[in-house]
Amino acid sequence: MASSSSSPLLSRQEKQGLGWMEWLKGWSYLIYEVLFQKITARHLQNPLPLPSLESVTCIVTGSTSGIGLEMARQLAESGAHVVMAVRNPTAAHDLIQEWQNDRSKTCLLSIEVMELNLLSLDSVVRFSKAWNSRLKPLHVLINNAGIFSIGQPQNFSKDGYEEHIQVNHLAPALLSILLLPSLLRGSPSRIVNVNSSMHFVGSVDVDDMNFVSGKNKFTSLKGYSSSKLAQIMFSSILQKCLPIEAGISVVCVSPGSVRTNVARDLPKIVQVAYHVIPIFLFIAQEGSRSALFAATDPQILEYCMALKADEWPVCAYISHSCRPMNASTEAHKIQTAHKVWEKTLDMIGLPSDAMEKILEGKEVQCKYEAH
Ligand SMILES: NC(=O)c1ccc[n+]([C@@H]2O[C@H](COP(=O)([O-])OP(=O)(O)OC[C@H]3O[C@@H](n4cnc5c(N)ncnc54)[C@H](OP(=O)(O)O)[C@@H]3O)[C@@H](O)[C@H]2O)c1
Predict the structure, then answer these.
(1) Which of 169, 191, 239, 284 has the fewest beta carbons under 10 Å from its own?
(2) Within a 13 Å sphere around the CA of 115, how many CA atoms are in the beta-carbon half?
(3) Nearest to 190 by CA among 299, 284, 79
(4) 65 C-alpha to ligand 1 centroid (Å)
(5) Is 7 a domain residue?
(6) What's the 247 CA to ligand 1 centre distance in angstroms?
(7) Looking at the 3D structure of the chain, how many domains does it have?
């Protein structure tokens, strides 16, 4: 497990966690989003019409269920070559068969399956090496796979990290950095992170991202919301440090509140309620629109570059209604974001100059690579 050093560089204001006002504002926004998302997104068609994506290659993590499944299918149906990066390859092959059966035999979808288990950083390294070795361009990486183990006790991966932080933040961060050579080949290219409005009620303690010091009592809600906030902070520094010439945009999106398997760990009684009150919830196809928009809309690239030119502290964030939105006040704490960047690189076993080295075409060794 990574050690916890203190962070003297943080100002007193940055050291303070989420204040009561911010916490209340966060919950108010979440309630507003759930109650009104169908109204605020009523201008959108469902499914979201996509441009022709011939000669575009997309990797979608966690595409065997929910929002990821919808994205993989729609991207492939629009002509993209889709790589389903999943922990259950059999389920992915079954899905492809099903989608293909629904179409005429002459219209073959271009989809492949590659194994990726985000609970193992070694699996992330193996996946990235296998993909990069093809020397092919990658145009879109969608970090979609995620967990919210509601009400579950604190669990750790075999790498020693709390599972929410590993699956929702650390593993996607490692994947994004290691796939930079392929994203450069596909430039202009994009990294789309399926984030969550739950980040509004999260805070990140850079000295205790694993919730092990005893200072912050772990709950699944804290684990989930802080992992999503850490993802925004890391993405913001990544976008800031990537040179404009690299042509790689980094976007976080909120899918809205969506009826998927994400609620699989809810107690039975709450689960019934969750599925009985669908009037407010998006179906997965509706929930996939913000990420598909971020992955395919031509204006996103301009938008990301404008934020970068303005030195805006947070990376582009797209709401469930496919509109740019402002991430939480916590996400704007730039010093904390820099610490999250440094700490994350340390936790995922990369040197602090990993990104620069990769952009120069140099090899970078990850501590978690199995020999
Ligand atoms: N649903 C919502 O209301 C909501 C709201 C905000 C944000 N989100 C975010 O949306 C994203 C997609 O979630 P969803 O709602 O579509 O949930 P979902 O139906 O549970 O899908 C999650 C996907 O992630 C995969 N996954 C989980 N752990 C993994 C691991 N260790 N390695 C590789 N893949 C793994 C799952 O694979 P298996 O099929 O093998 O389990 C599944 O394909 C997540 O990042 C979630 O945080 C969802």
Answers:
(1) 284
(2) 9
(3) 299
(4) 7
(5) no
(6) 28
(7) 1
Tell me, yes or no, whether 370 lies in a domain. no
Domain range for 120 is 12-359
Share of the chain above pLDDT 90, in %: 84
188 cis-preceded (ω within 30 degrees of 0): yes
> Quick check: is 367 in a domain?
no
Calculate mean pLDDT across residues 128-147.
Answer: 98
Q: How far is the CA of 146 from the centre of ligand 1 (A)?
A: 4
Pocket mutation for ligand 1, best pick of 67, 198, 288 (most atoms within 8 Å of C-beta)? 67
Pocket test for ligand 1, best of 260, 282, 318, 319 (most atoms within 8 A of CB): 260
- The answer to whether the CB of 132 falls within 8 A of the CB of 369 is no
CA nearest neighbour of 187 among 250, 128, 246, 241: 246
**For 174-209, what is each residue's pLDDT tens digit?**
999 999 999 999 999 999 999 999 999 999 999 999
- Which residues have a catalytic role annotated? 224
- Give tens-digit pLDDT for 353-363: 999 999 999 99
Could you tell me if residue 368 is inside a domain?
no
